[in-house]
Amino acid sequence: MTSHPLTDSVARQAPTLTWRSAPAWVALSSFCVFASGALVRVLPYLFGLQGTTALVVASVLVGIALLATSATVGLLSGGPALRRALRQLLIGYGAAAVTYGLGLLFGAGLA
Q1: If you count DSSP H runs as helices and E runs as strands, how many of each does the chain have, helices first?
Q2: Which of 15, 47, 50, 71 is least surrounded, with the fewest CB atoms within 10 Å of its CB?
Q3: What is the span of the domain harbouring residue 34?
Q4: Count of structural domains, the chain
Q5: Is 28 inside any structural domain?
Q6: pLDDT for 33-83, tens place per residue?
C-alpha cells in the first residue's frame, strides 16, 4: 500500500487533536455563531420596536455586523478590509432584497 501526502499529514496530526476539534464542539460553536447572527436581526423587536422603525434599526444593525465581520476577515487574511466589507454588505443586503421580493411575490408580508 502506497502512502499519500494528505493521509500522512492527517496521521501525523491525529495525536495532537484536542476536545475542541471534536464534532460536538464544532457543532456547538457553529450553532452559537448562527444564533448570534439571528439575534442581531431580532434585537429591535425584543426591545419593543415595531413596524418600519424596527425594520430600519434591524437593517442598520445587520449592516454593522456584516461590515465588522468581513473587515475583520479581510484584516486577518491580509486582504483589503474595506473592499471585502463593502462586498459583503452588498451581498447581504442583496440577499435580503431578493428574499423580500420573493415574499411579496408569494403573498407574505410584514406582521
Answers
A1: 4, 0
A2: 15
A3: 22-105
A4: 1
A5: yes
A6: 889 888 998 999 999 999 899 999 999 999 999 999 999 988 998 889 999
